[in-house]
Amino acid sequence: MNKKYDVVIIGAGVNGVAIARALSLSGKKVLVVDKARVASGASSHSSRLIHGGLRYLENFEFSLVKESLHDQKYLLDNYPDLVKLHPFYLPISKDSKRPSWLIRVGLWLYGALAYHKDKPAEVDLAQFLKQFRAVKGEKLRTVFRYFDAKTDDALLTRTIAEEARNAGAEILENSDITSINVSETLITLQIGNDVVQTNALVNATGAWIDEVNQKFNLPSSYVIEKVSGIHLVIKGALAPEPLILETSTKRIFFIIPNEDTTIIGTTERSENARVDDIDVNDEDVEYLLQQSNAYLNTALTKADVQEVYVGTRPIIKSKRDVSKMSREYKLDLHGVGQNKILNIYGGKLTTFHSLAKKALAILD
Hints:
Elements: E1 2-5, E2 7-10, H1 14-25, E3 30-33, E4 49-50, H2 62-78, E5 84-93, H3 100-113, E6 121-123, H4 125-131, E7 140-150, H5 153-166, E8 170-172, E9 177-182, E10 187-191, E11 194-198, E12 200-203, H6 209-216, E13 224-235, E14 243-246, E15 252-258, E16 261-265, E17 269-271, H7 282-293, E18 305-316, E19 330-336, E20 339-345, H8 352-363
Parallel strand pairs: 1-11, 2-3, 2-12, 3-8, 12-20
Antiparallel strand pairs: 4-7, 5-7, 6-7, 9-10, 10-11, 13-16, 13-17, 13-18, 14-15, 15-16, 19-20
Helix pairs in contact: 1-5, 1-8
């Protein structure tokens, strides 16, 4: 079989399928290829949040926060059954390394940039403790509330993939690309027994992007930092609404109820291994339990952990500490003869809509 497509996309994560949907709706003939299933990578191993990135304000990433909140509104409006707004509570401990005034300013700015009417506010500590009975009261100085959204990341990604299919895109799952040949006039891919040709190739493989570019000798302008983040799934709901908390080293983690379980995460560990070889690290499990227990009346142990999952985030490498590396994404375009090769570096679950629109503008 020898088929010609306007665009071939490698990777069926949320960014890959969102780009496929946008291109297909514009009339392009599109193929998406993934070695596994739709949403098998970070798109189903995330924190399951559709958020603007409150903590990004500390790094002055105002444009990313603004774009993320814009996309949050789009998802709230268009996928109300999948994306829902929730109050998030931000307890501030007496030994917090962030002053209350700084948090007030950050929350005010976050609320001003948001598109919904629910604005951040300080809440009564006694009322908070009545509602959040698992939380230690003697440790806290004050509590703030703001609003962000939650989702089922895998289901949202599969929904976008189905919309891409309905618009005409083909999605090949569990399909290995064995070779990619880039000539001056054509890009030819060998996929199993099939040969596929195109003049536009998109690498949307997320954390695998460097490995794919190296394997097939594709041009690129950046290198990623592979940052693993683990999440603990705890039996039972520890809180009625999400909690955003500060660790002893000023990092942020969360405790988020999810039906009859609680998700605790996440970690940030730089990884040198191949993405497929990255696994749960016992030190990270102990770290999350220790940080959580500093806030909880009843200490958690490994016996309370029902599941642990790990997702690997592709962050553009820089000289900064991993927790301060920019979460901005880059669309890296290369022209080879009559061909276009577009690398998708980074990209949050929240911002797939804006990212896909920018990719469409480049490839349309």
